[in-house]
């Protein structure tokens, strides 16, 4: 079986407490291979568990074991009782940690975690992962409830080789299927100065990482030639010496501020 490890997003450091619940392995040892994290940004998509070939690489432990259920559930003291929620829409699998797997060619899939249609693959994305490289996989597009399919893509996370102690490093990924190419601006809440993080980023694409002074920012994603914020997120703290991915997701045509499918920005640390 392919060995799967979960690692904190620190280059060259990967030590976690040993665990083997819910079919996802993490082993307290230095790791080699490739590293990948999983986003469920498929608009209206169900909760899923992600698989590399036929090996489960994301899952969520259930809270149904605390307190001890009556009658007892044997899984609570052995393999663990897995939640049927999976990685839900708008969230990142494995609490945002990378999974470490052997560098190889894979067919990745998102499979329904709920009891209804449990294990049904709604997306398949093939890619070859290189040794020592980092990747992000996104379920994206609009979920087809009839065909039970959704789109997806993988991009490589190419981290900067040199770090400025006063800056964070940030990139922008466009995972909103019906958006035009987006430019992401970060406006300091203190100075009022704006920084461009990614310019004219098309769907399924990402910018390079750029240095951003450690501070608190208001983020806006806009179309070319427009001052209207299609995507926005306020009071985002970007810490010096950290690395972040800011992703745009959701239906870019929705104007409601409460709709589940509204456009949104997600900020996930890479390390």
What does this structure look like?
With 271 residues, the protein is an all-beta fold. It has two domains: 1-157, no CATH class; 159-271, Domain of unknown function DUF5300 (Immunoglobulin-like). It is built from no helices and 19 strands. It has strands at residues 5-7, 34-40, 48-52, 55-56, 91-92, 98-101, 105-112, 121-128, 134-144, 149-156, 167-174, 182-188, 194-201, 205-206, 210-213, 215-223, 231-238, 243-249, 264-269. The strands form four sheets. Strands 1, 2, 5, 6, 9 and 10 form a six-stranded mixed beta sheet that branches. Strands 11, 14, 15, 18 and 19 form a five-stranded mixed beta sheet that branches. A hairpin with a 2-residue loop joins strand 3 (48-52) and strand 4 (55-56). The model is unreliable at 8-23 and 25-30 (pLDDT under 50).
Short description:
With 271 residues, the protein is mainly β. Helices cover 0% and strands 43% of the residues.
Overview features:
271 residues; mainly beta; Immunoglobulin-like; 2 domains; 43% strand; globular
């Amino acid at each position: 079986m392919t060995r799967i490890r979960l690692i904190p997003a620190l280059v060259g450091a990967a030590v976690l407490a040993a665990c083997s619940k819910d079919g996802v392995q993490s082993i307290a040892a230095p790791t080699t291979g490739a590293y990948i994290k999983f986003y469920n940004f498929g608009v209206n998509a169900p909760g899923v568990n992600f698989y590399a070939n036929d090996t489960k690489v994301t899952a969520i432990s259930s809270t149904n074991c605390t307190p001890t259920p009556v009658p007892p559930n044997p899984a609570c003291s052995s393999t663990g009782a897995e939640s049927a929620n999976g990685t839900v829409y708008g969230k990142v699998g494995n609490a945002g940690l990378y999974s470490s797997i052997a560098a190889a060619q894979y067919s990745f899939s998102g499979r329904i975690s709920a009891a209804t249609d449990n294990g049904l693959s709604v997306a398949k994305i093939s890619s070859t992962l290189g040794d020592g490289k980092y990747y992000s996989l996104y379920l994206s597009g609009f979920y087809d409830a009839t065909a039970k399919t959704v789109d997806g893509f993988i991009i490589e996370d190419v981290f900067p080789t040199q770090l400025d102690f006063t800056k964070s490093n940030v990139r922008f990924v466009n995972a909103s299927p019906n958006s035009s190419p987006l430019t992401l601006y970060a406006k300091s809440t203190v100075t009022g100065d704006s920084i461009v993080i990614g310019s004219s980023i098309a769907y399924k694409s990402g910018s390079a990482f750029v240095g951003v002074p450690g501070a608190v920012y208001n983020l806006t994603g806009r179309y070319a030639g427009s001052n209207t914020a299609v995507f926005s997120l306020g009071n985002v703290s970007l810490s010096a010496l950290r690395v972040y991915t800011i992703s745009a997701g959701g239906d870019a045509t929705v104007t409601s501020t409460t709709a589940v499918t509204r456009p949104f920005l997600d900020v996930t640390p890479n390390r």
